UniProtKB/TrEMBL annotation:
It comes from the Bacteria. It catalyses: arsenic triglutathione + 3 [thioredoxin]-dithiol + 3 S-adenosyl-L-methionine = trimethylarsine + 3 [thioredoxin]-disulfide + 3 glutathione + 3 S-adenosyl-L-homocysteine + 3 H(+); arsenic triglutathione + [thioredoxin]-dithiol + S-adenosyl-L-methionine + 2 H2O = methylarsonous acid + [thioredoxin]-disulfide + 3 glutathione + S-adenosyl-L-homocysteine + H(+); arsenic triglutathione + 2 [thioredoxin]-dithiol + 2 S-adenosyl-L-methionine + H2O = dimethylarsinous acid + 2 [thioredoxin]-disulfide + 3 glutathione + 2 S-adenosyl-L-homocysteine + 2 H(+). Its EC number is 2.1.1.137. It is an enzyme of class 2 (transferase). It comes from Pseudothauera nasutitermitis. This is Arsenite methyltransferase. Keywords: Methyltransferase, S-adenosyl-L-methionine, Transferase. Belongs to the methyltransferase superfamily. Arsenite methyltransferase family. InterPro entries: Arsenite_MeTrfase-like, Methyltranfer_dom, SAM-dependent_MTases_sf. GO terms for biological process: methylation. The keyword Methyltransferase applies. Residues 71-223 form the Methyltransferase domain.
Length: 361
């Protein structure tokens, strides 16, 4: 362990070394943290059968960050690694869409690039819709990407590696189109971890050392303008390494999938008398659409919603799925959240009151 606190530059070098030299495939991982627990949908499973085996073995993600309605979208994958998720997204966006993978590690970019043509042929595309860029997720403004040019930003167990997560969030906010979505899976802790864990390259590389206390991430997201953070999936991680687990001091780690929207939302869930009705016109979800852990919409059923939720489903690409009744002009006070409909991170929302992060935490 190096007792000198790492600088951002040194941290980036350490992560590049870990993912470029130390790890050759997922079997080299020292823990089970950088492994996926969230089961993909049947549609994603079908696409995964078409991904090259070598690319599968270079996958170190902790979730399945593939939101619906991506046909024709421009999607940015932060920390794309060996490119597995980018190639899945290539199929989901179709030939009219674009996928851009960004990673700091030259070896990962070169590896991913070597499989572009293979997957173009597998998916039957005339031209590849995937490109890879080497760059740091803390400096997205230095990439050749125009502001407000991205429909959806995804990431899979990468943002935790950054020492300056506020810079990552600020960069994403600049690149997203108005109404755009961030949908990502990452590792979070149930408390603030000991600072010395940040000094251990192994523990950092295993997605632990710089993992944020979940509530601290919410605060960072709100400061970046994402006032309502929604949780869509959560699972407790096993470490499978007693020596590393002992250093956590009893802290628990979770893989959590989140969605954030670039729009003018409030920092609390407020009642404006609005109702949402899901049309059932998403092919993979004909009976029920799940927005987050506290908002599931049965087809044809009128559901009272706070204004944040109404805006999320009416001012994003999801607007084709819903009818929203009510103009949102008259205020009726704080919106009382119901019981979460899927497992979530424990917050005030679990006891029926909207917490600072909104209905979906």
């Amino acid at each position: 362990m190096n007792n000198q606190a790492p600088t951002l530059e040194r941290r980036i070098e350490e992560v590049q070394h870990y993912y470029g030299d130390t790890l050759t495939d997922k079997q080299d991982l020292a823990t089970n943290v950088c492994t996926a627990d969230e089961p993909p949908s049947d549609a994603i499973k079908a696409i995964l059968t078409q991904i090259h085996d070598d690319v599968q073995m270079r996958f170190y993600g902790c979730g399945a960050p593939f939101p619906p309605l991506l046909e024709g979208a421009t999607v940015l994958d932060l920390g794309c690694g060996g490119g597995r998720d980018c190639f899945v997204l290539s199929s989901l966006v179709g030939e009219r869409g674009k996928v851009i993978g960004v990673d700091a590690t030259a070896e990962q970019i070169a590896f991913a690039q070597s499989y572009v043509e293979h997957h173009r042929k597998v998916f039957g595309h005339t031209e590849s819709n995937v490109r890879f860029l080497q760059g740091n997720i803390e400096a997205l403004d230095q990439l050749d990407l125009p502001p407000e040019s991205i429909d959806v930003i995804v990431s899979n167990c990468v943002i935790n590696l950054s020492m300056t997560k506020a810079d990552v969030l600020a960069g994403m906010a600049k690149l997203l189109k108005p109404g755009g979505e961030i949908y990502f899976a990452d590792i979070f802790s149930d408390r603030r971890l000991a600072p010395e864990l940040k000094d251990d390259p192994l523990i950092v590389g295993e997605c632990i050392g710089d993992a944020l206390y979940f509530e601290d991430f919410v605060r960072l997201a709100q400061a970046a303008g994402f006032l309502d953070v929604r949780v869509t999936a959560k699972s407790l991680k096993t470490i499978a390494n007693p020596a590393i687990e002992a250093k956590l001091g009893g802290a628990k780690l979770y893989s959590i999938t989140l969605r954030l929207f670039k729009m003018d939302l409030e920092d609390r869930c407020e009642d404006y008398g609005q109702v949402a009705i899901y049309k059932g016109n998403l092919p993979e979800a004909p009976d029920r659409f799940v927005l987050d852990n506290g908002h599931a919409f049965d087809t044809g059923r009128a559901v009272p919603v706070c204004r944040n939720t109404a805006d999320m489903i009416s001012k994003s690409r999801y607007r084709i799925l819903f009818d929203v009744i009510g103009d949102g002009r008259r205020h009726y006070g704080l919106f009382q959240c119901g019981t979460p409909q899927i497992e979530s991170v424990p917050t005030l929302a679990d006891v029926g009151v909207c917490g600072p992060a909104g209905c979906g935490c």
